[in-house]
Amino acid sequence: MVYLRNTDLTSGMCLARDITFFDSSAGSVVTLKTGTKLTDMNITQMNRSGAVEGAYISAENSEVRVISSINSEIKQNAISNIHSLADNFMDSGKGVTQSDIDKIGDTTEQLIDELADKKDILINIADIKMYDDYTFHHSLSVAIMAIAIGLEMGLDRSMLEELGTAGLLHDIGKTSVPIDIINKKGRLTDEEYNIIRMHPIYAANHLKERHLVSEACFCGIIEHHERWDGSGYPFKLKEGQIHPYARILAVADVYDALTSNRPYRIPAPPSEAIEFIMGGSGSHFDDEIVRAFLRKVAPYPTGSKVTLSTGEVGTVIKNNNEHPLRPLVSLEDGRLYDLGRTDANMNIVITGLYEPDSARLIHG
Ligand SMILES: [Fe+2]
Predict the structure, then answer these.
(1) What is the largest CA-CA distance in the chain?
(2) Which domains does the chain have, with CATH numbers?
(3) Which end of the chain has the smaller Cβ count within 10 Å, N or C?
(4) Which positions ≥6 away from 191 have C-beta within 8 Å?
């Protein structure tokens, strides 16, 4: 199954997931079921709705390029660049080189170009994730999320480049931590926890000694586990003492970690992870950054099946950029609830979220 944007869909492709949307010209809700072979008419309807950004297509009959939030070729390149930089970081005889950093810089530029082009799109975490080799993919997801937040906050290009680079490199120090500590299921001992807490220092100092990153990028890396209230590590910095890049990375880092599959924890759905971040606003996290983050993430991506406080079940057919927790929902009988209309639907809230392609309620 591959996710394709509307512009890459052609007639004859076979849907791998249901799509439901409102066709305003026809004045009706359209549901295209899994297995449907798309026609030109379907694709026109999807474009016209303005609510469908793309569709999941069966991989067997798709020979076109895969494009989701970020082009998959860029993601693969990013991963291999982080990988080879980390290999050199681990090699005590060699260390990270200027050429490694130049490649990371190229990756950052490509990510910024992609995201700046799609400024109005809410980030669907499932689209940017790739599910193996956690540390490197985590670094990429964090960089993407951090750049999206930075764009939303109006950072200029050179700041976005420093921030994106810090995102790609923030956890390379973890490659020095024994893997059985990183993946440990039980509670960490004090000694193990102290080893983990060294990872921002390992990476940042290594890069600084070789004059490979700017001071701001260094601060982003070394301070990414500091918390707004001073309860973080390694320096227990608080509020304005923490570099703004590190404050952005902290939000992106926790969001990606919570929504990831780890040996010691099943992934939280986006809505639950967002609630956790909101709960930490002003204590763990800078609230200005949390607000920018909330404008950029989709807790209920288009196509999510949800339960409502009315007891009804529906499908999210359009996200609401102003109020991400209040999308447009289509019920099974075709009626619509626009939860963004607080005058009419203020008393209705989403109470649960189903796992994609299954009847299992994962939240609520
Ligand atoms: Fe970290």
Answers:
(1) 67
(2) 2-61 (3.90.105), 72-296 (1.10.3210.10), 305-363 (no CATH)
(3) N
(4) none
- Span from the CA of 257 to the centroid of ligand 1 (angstroms): 10
Nearest to 140 by CA among 77, 97, 98: 77
Q: How far is the CA of 167 from the centre of ligand 1 (A)?
A: 10
> 200: CA distance to ligand 1 center in Å?
6
d(CA 100, CA 86): 9
| CA 224–ligand 1 middle distance (angstroms) | 7
Rounded to the nearest whole angstrom, what is the distance from the C-alpha of residue 115 to the centroid of ligand 1? 23
From the CA of 197, how far away is ligand 1's center (Å)?
A: 8
Reported as type and span, the H/E element at residue 276 is helix 270-279
Mean pLDDT value across the chain: 84
Paired tokens of 265: 């924890």
Q: How far is the CA of 118 from the centre of ligand 1 (A)?
A: 28
CA–CA gap between residue 305 and residue 331 (Å, rounded): 10
What CA–CA distances, in Å, run from 345 to 315, 333, 350, 363? Answer: 16, 18, 11, 22
The answer for residues whose C-beta is within 8 angstroms of residue 265's C-beta and 6 or more apart is none
- pLDDT 10s digits, 255-299: 988 887 776 667 787 878 888 999 999 999 999 999 999 888 878
CA of 214 to the centre of ligand 1 (A): 19
pLDDT digits (tens, 9 = 90+) for 207-233: 999 999 999 999 999 999 999 999 999
Residue 202 alpha carbon to ligand 1 centre in Å: 11
* Residue-level pLDDT at 61: 41
